[in-house]
Design a protein that fits this description.
Protein name: Metallo-beta-lactamase domain-containing protein
Keywords: Exonuclease, Hydrolase, Nuclease, RNA-binding
CATH architecture of the largest domain: 4-Layer Sandwich
InterPro entries: Metallo-B-lactamas (IPR001279), RibonucZ/Hydroxyglut_hydro (IPR036866), RNase_J_2 (IPR042173)
Oligomer: single chain
Number of domains: 2
CATH superfamily of the largest domain: Ribonuclease Z/Hydroxyacylglutathione hydrolase-like
CATH class of the largest domain: Alpha Beta
Organism: Sulfobacillus thermotolerans
Number of helices: 11
Structural class: alpha/beta
Distance between the termini: 14 Å
Largest sheet: 7 strands, mixed
CATH topology of the largest domain: Metallo-beta-lactamase, Chain A
Pfam families: Lactamase_B_2
Shape: globular
Amino acid sequence: MATIRFFGGVGVIGSSKILIEQEGWRILLDFGLDFSPGLGLFRGAVRPRPGHELSDRLKTQMAPHIPHLYRPELLRSINNLPGGSDGHTAVFITHAHLDHIGLAGAIDPAIPIWASPETVQLMHALEISGEDSGGEWPVLRPMAAEQPIAFGPFQVTRYAVDHDIIGASGYAVETEDGVVAFSGDLRLHGRHPEQTWKFAHKVRGARALIMEGTTLSFGFQDATRTEEDVDQAFAKILAQTPGLVLATVYPRNIERVAAFIQVAREMGRTFLWPERMTQFFQAMGLAAESWDADHLDPIQKHPERYIIQLTAQDWPMMLDLPMGPSATFIHANGEPLGTFDPHWTLLQDWLAVVHTSFWAIGTGGHASPDDIRALLDVIQPDILFPLHSKDPDRMLPPVGTVRWLPEKDRLYDLSRGKG
């Protein structure tokens, strides 16, 4: 008998943590951090105590009490939870967003953590650039696409899917009760929709499908931009802006960063980044340049030649930059991450002070409601588990599919009703 438990992603966007068990063996799909700006016990200036990152989250129910998973030295006063590997657990990560990988550094190094080669490369680049991991850095193993790995009674296959980060994956876990497919985060409006379609066809007829439903959380949806639409909007704004351009791009969206650098170069502008981002991009093979105090004079003289990405801590620099009606600020899914982020209103306040216009041109990494339906019509699973959504009940199953709405830490028997 194979079972599934959900320790995250239930009624919320992100924090995916899915445990599949059979015969005492365990497959853990994703190990994400709870991420809700402005919500939760750890928000604003409040952070887990240094050296207590895991134990503080365990005590506040923000990390699951799974035995033989964590580094023993991180458990501290959690005496009733055995740490260290027992050799029966393997972890498979879909992609390098914090809500899917953010807790993986707490996993015991003896436990194999598999991910796409691109995810391994990206996480290594973040580490060498000095990114704060909030604890330990995970030890990842590269896993080739469509080449199954046997672990205990399971066989696990990784498939590439399209998302707003390179190396995104979906998985198929073969159990004694049939295949459990997990979409991870995916979309059809990105640069590689064929990958997502291929995954859907490969897991067609799965015993169970765990499907993300992020966009179902937001009611009416505007028409979805493609990544090519975003590139074109970026170029159009640059052409129409006579002065300085400020921008915020999510740095882990490497393909968009590379496209924006290329567009900027073609239009005679230099894109300048914060130093740590520059180190990360260079580690990923991009030709990126960081800004410093030496750039201030040339920017003042020729603002039309530059694009600058500032972190929130650097927004006061706007007071010394040539802002005003000839400048503009472009938001392309960088921080602040959206209107739900407390810094969103603060950014608008700063732009009002410097009399600078604002453009939002990004596009999301998640399938639209219509595209979710199209993918479900292809996959046609026996059981559908909607996850990673504030409104999972809006994910309607195809005819013949049973929908089970997950509850946190509840055990689901995959043999139930079989045959």
